[in-house]
């Protein structure tokens, strides 16, 4: 009887081993959790800022489609050759024709403000007070005048941008439309909101 009771009482060595294991386990758990928490983006973070893929194959020349990134409209315009030619014709009418202000990532080519000249990828938010400019590819429409070669018109206070999102002089918007970070995943798809694969 006495012998049995003695067997059930853990020795000092056993107690120390158990204590060390428990503390060690807590330590590992505490160390692992911050790593997992920072490694896995939350659903909110994903919906707020995760990059978005846009397929270009169905976008006909001359047309525009709208994607969304970080709650903002992203305009994607498939420019025709005629549209690209028009970009060279109105520099004197533009506020920042060479895109010298930081409204685009450094890898964007001028004057097309694009990676592939055929596609303009631009944030559809007016740089005056944030309205959504309207895509107006029509040439010399009555309401925009005989010099209009296509671009974007902001209905809120009349700002005008060309087909590269460059702002015209004499309008309320102070700067060109913003080009978001993006890259081509392949010939027909882009990733908006990331630029990690840009060389
Ligand atoms: S918000 Fe576009 S012109 Fe004012």
Account of the 3D structure:
It is a single chain. The protein is an alpha+beta fold. The protein folds into two domains: 2-39; 48-199, Rieske [2Fe-2S] iron-sulphur domain (Rieske Iron-sulfur Protein, 3-layer Sandwich). The protein is built from four helices and nine strands. It has helices at residues 2-8, 12-39, 43-49, 81-86, and strands spanning 52-55, 64-69, 72-78, 119-123, 134-136, 151-153, 160-161, 182-186, 189-192. The strands form three sheets. Strands 1-9-8 form a three-stranded antiparallel sheet, with no helix packed on it. A three-stranded antiparallel sheet has the order 2-3-4, with no helix packed on it. A hairpin with a 2-residue loop joins strand 8 (182-186) and strand 9 (189-192). The longest helix is centred in the first third of the chain and has 28 residues, at 12-39. The model is unreliable at 1-11 and 15-42 (pLDDT under 50).
